[in-house]
Design a protein that fits this description.
The structure holds two protein chains of two kinds. Chain A is of the alpha+beta class. Chain A has 13 helices and 23 strands. The chains are: A alpha+beta, B mainly alpha. The interface between A and B is medium-sized, with 23 and 27 residues.
């Protein structure tokens, strides 16, 4: 399969050269040599039909009949040797700890702002800053029950943090489904490997949620609040609820009476202790946020402030994960933990700073410019791939509202071979790692490797043609 | 359990049952169409009009099609998107219901209903020839059997299971009343070939509700209207008779209430209990002497009432009203 495989510039995670795989991939490379192209096609179709049957699909927009397609998926796993993973794990635990301390600080004493480590303006003017929860005693001071930290590797293979997702990171269900499908359709791949199992994490997830119960009951009622089946992450929501054994509720299933949250059951109202919400802050409670929200629960914030219900992840987390605040996370680690960051950031320029702005504007064709409040790979300028017109358009937007943008050097993302168009091609890849914070902080053993399947594309988001790969953390070696 | 989920379970089951009932009716008519061409309605109505009548959808049909011929009737009954009771729409609704409660039902059940939906969708663009229709109805019947197979083998007998039962049996009872009602009216109007017609007619009705074999086992190959009526309405053991279905409903209800009915559930209990008692002590000769149609109309009305009380008692569908 690798006869015509090209290893060009940048870091290839699997191949050192055209015909020499890296150590962790040697065994897989050997197994793959036994497969013919038609056989791989047949297996690939089997995998797709499993996704379709399970309803792991996305809806093609602008199609009245609601055509659904299976999620793009690739069968070459991203393999992470044990030692490499141990390093990543430590880095992630450190980072989430600091981010949690930051959120606790920002919504209470704001020491980090007084000391000027993080500029006050950046925080209090952020649209995600949520004064409604200032000084609310959060159970166990845990703001970040689950986070998704996006990691990339640069041209030397070194891991960097690209983005923190502290609000509603999605994708965990896909990690399980990818693994399930891989085991079923490509069992041969696992023959020579000992891969870390994904089986135990739901216990960690459930107990982390139960620990948030403000009433500290023996067996608290925990629910997952979803916007409903039309949400693009609905599969993720239903899967997590099912695996944890908690109720999957919609806003209309809940009601607040005398500052207590109840769910409406066939036998009347039942008190709810912990809500793992997968609805954005703005839609949670129409009485406090967007009044037109039909997804939320009127009075929920009131019940929350009264200490009658826990909400995970915490409200106002967006203040710590936008693209401008990102640049200060290494400072937060030093400030709160007195440690050096284990996983580096990608260098980031703030365009509100005149000197940095001037530097960036003079080098737009080399840089990546991102709008701080955007996600999903939208509103980005990728300098080296952009037309002159697009660059000029961005220049104007930056000058119009410089504080809304940051810039980064274009990182040559690492590649992993991917089966596209009947052959192997190196495609850019990133990794969403999940961190669960409970009594202990647990890093989910693996993660969602997302691959940019469009030719040469750097964007891995599924909304823009990205696919997923199984991620293997090796138990040994 | 969440009342929204109870509602979804109840409607998922009703829609799967509805699609299956329609498939059985179509399957029998397909054969009948060939065997008994001489009994074709003199009025030029197609053989499919009773089916549309059974679904109580005449006015909807007439608003969608200019004339009632084989093609339009069959499209309407099977894949029409604008008919909420077409097989496709029933399956699609059942799938929507299942999707809103992933995690509450066995994942195999979800995968089955999801696959079912895609399989029916494949008929959307096909010309509805007899052999195509046979394939479609066979598929629907077999999905329905698998549906029950998974429920029976994998679902815990808690409230969720009981709501599925209630949806299935209420739908089945109501549909049976409707089928017998529509088909018995056809007989009264007809004068010629009386005996031969009756025989074929009632054996077709038996087949339509998959009762033919078990009826013959019980009564022998004598297809007598009063025995057929008795079997379909009052038989205590035939799993599609109205009496059996309503007794199952009562049983499901009492299981949910752990055998002790509290005040909020009293109306439903009384309604169901009376209906079951009526069917237990009814005699077919008496029913036939009086107004058969009125009896069946009353059963349908009572079933509707049960459905409504069920909704109020367990807050089903309360969400949509808000």
């Amino acid at each position: 399969m690798f006869e015509n495989y090209v290893v060009d510039s940048g870091y290839d995670e699997m191949m050192r050269g055209a015909d020499s795989p890296r150590d962790a991939y040697v065994r897989l490379h050997r197994t793959l040599a036994d497969f013919s192209e038609p056989e791989l096609h047949t297996r690939y179709r089997m995998a797709q039909s499993i996704f379709l049957r399970q309803g792991i699909t996305f809806t093609v927009y602008h199609d009245e009949r609601g055509t659904e397609r299976p999620m793009p998926f690739d069968f070459i796993p991203k393999i992470i040797p044990a030692a490499e993973w141990e390093h990543i794990e430590r880095g992630l635990v450190q980072r989430v700890k600091a981010l949690n301390a930051f959120l606790e600080d920002v919504y209470n004493d704001q020491e980090i702002l007084y000391e000027g480590v993080v500029p006050r303006d950046l925080i209090v003017t952020s649209e995600y800053f949520c004064p409604q929860v200032a000084h609310v005693a959060i159970p166990r001071r845990n703001h970040i029950f689950m986070s998704g930290i996006d990691l990339i590797r640069n041209e030397t293979g070194e891991y960097h943090v690209l983005e923190d997702n502290l609000r509603n990171p999605s994708g965990m269900a896909y990690v399980y489904q990818n693994r399930y499908v891989m085991r079923k359709v490509f069992p041969e791949f696992f023959r020579d490997y000992s891969v870390r199992s994904l089986a135990t994490y739901f216990t960690d997830l459930l107990s982390a949620l139960q620990q948030l119960d403000p009433h500290e009951r023996q067996n608290p009622t925990v629910v997952l609040l979803t916007p409903g089946m039309y949400n693009s992450a609905y599969f993720d929501h239903s899967f997590l609820a099912q695996q944890m054994g908690i109720e999957l509720v919609e806003g209309r299933d809940l009601v607040v009476v005398d500052r207590v949250v109840y769910m409406k059951t066939s036998h009347g109202l039942q008190e709810v202790d912990v809500i793992y919400r997968r609805i954005d802050d703005a839609f949670l409670d129409p009485l406090e946020f967007r009044s037109d929200s039909l997804l939320g629960v009127p009075g929920l914030m009131d019940a929350y402030r009264a200490g009658n219900v826990a909400i995970a992840n915490g409200l106002g987390n967006g203040v710590a994960d936008d693209k401008a605040v990102y640049a200060y996370v290494p400072d937060m680690i030093r400030y709160y933990l007195g440690e050096q960051p284990i996983l580096p950031n990608v260098p980031t320029y703030h365009l509100s700073n005149p000197e940095e702005r001037e530097f960036v504007l003079s080098r737009l064709p080399e840089l990546v410019v991102k709008q701080t409040d955007s996600s999903g790979g939208y509103n980005m300028l990728i300098g080296p791939q952009a037309q002159e017109m697009e660059i000029e358009h961005f220049r104007k937007r930056i000058l119009g509202a410089p504080h809304k943008f940051v810039a980064q050097p274009t990182v040559q993302l690492s590649k992993v071979p991917t089966f596209v168009g009947g052959g192997m091609r190196g495609c850019h890849v990133d990794l969403r790692a999940f961190v669960i914070q409970g009594e202990h902080t647990t890093v989910f053993g693996g993660g969602l490797a997302r691959v940019a399947m469009k030719d040469g594309s750097l964007i891995v988001n599924s909304s823009q043609g990205g696919g997923a790969k199984d991620t293997w953390v090796l138990v040994d070696g | 359990m969440l009342s929204r989920v109870a509602d979804a379970l109840y409607w998922m089951a009703r829609n799967v049952e509805r699609a299956e009932n329609d498939a059985r009716l179509i399957a029998v008519q397909l054969v009948r169409q060939l065997e008994h061409a001489e009994f074709r309605d003199d009025m030029g109505h197609s053989l499919w009009s009773p089916l549309i009548h059974i679904n109580a959808s005449e006015s909807l049909f007439l608003s969608l099609y200019e004339r009632m011929d084989d093609q339009s009737s069959l499209e309407f009954l099977t894949v029409a998107d604008k008919n909420p009771n077409s097989i496709l729409r029933c399956v699609s609704t059942a799938r929507q219901n299942a999707r809103t409660m992933l995690g509450m039902i066995p994942s195999e059940l979800w995968e089955l209903v999801n696959t079912y939906y895609y399989s029916v969708r494949e008929y959307e663009n096909e010309t509805l020839r007899t052999e195509t229709l046979h394939r479609l109805v066979d598929m629907v019947k077999s999905f329905s059997l698998q549906f029950w197979g998974i429920i029976d083998a994998a679902m815990s007998r808690g409230d969720a299971y009981q709501f599925v039962r209630m949806g299935t049996f209420l739908e089945r009872a109501q549909k049976m009343a409707r089928i017998v009602d529509v088909y018995s009216q056809g007989v009264e109007e007809r004068q010629t070939h009386q005996q031969a017609f009756e025989y074929h007619h009632w054996s077709a009705v038996l087949q339509s509700v998959s009762a033919h074999e078990s009826y013959v086992l019980k009564h022998g190959a004598r297809i007598l209207p009063e025995r057929v009526g008795e079997y379909l309405l009052l038989d205590p053991l035939f799993p599609r008779s109205i009496r059996y279905c309503l007794e199952q409903m009562l049983d499901a209800f009492l299981t949910i209430e752990h055998g002790e009915v509290k005040s909020y559930a009293r109306t439903l209990h009384v309604q169901l209990g009376k209906l079951c008692a009526k069917l237990q002590y009814a005699e077919i000769e008496e029913i036939l002497q009086q107004d058969f149609h009125a009896f069946l109309a009353n059963i349908q009305w009572e079933c509707n009432q049960v459905g409504q009380h069920l909704a109020t008692t367990y807050y089903l569908g309360a969400m949509d009203a808000e």
